[in-house]
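Meet the record:
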Amino acid sequence: MEHITKRKNINPIVNESIYQFPSIEFVCTLEDRCAEVGINLSELSLLTGIRYASINDLKNNKKVTLNLQHILAIMMVLRLKSFDELFEIRFDGEDAERFEMESAYYRSNGLPDSAYKRMEDNKKRLDR
């Protein structure tokens, strides 16, 4: 993930949000989805009109920003209805447990007070 968080034009709050969970890994399952329908990345490129290099970067998690038109074209060609069929995030050990616990809390109770405090702090940092 270091290639993602080393971008110069991203404000530090974005990176701080990502690294609340240091073991986070962003995974694109594009190659698996292609295999399920019997095509390779070159054929996906031809079907979508997206450059092979861009598709390959996406598959290898080297794409730092995602082009929504590209993602939608890929999803239409592969007949995917949900982003979670194409992307997932994974964590190790304690990060995974903490994420699941906090996720359940958020869904039951909404954001905790610490998140609202962080919003106020970030508002000042962003001059909003």
Summary: The chain has eight helices and two strands. The chain has a mean pLDDT of 91. The first strand starts at residue 25 and ends at 28. The domain at 25-90 is CATH 1.10.260.40 (434 Repressor (Amino-terminal Domain)).
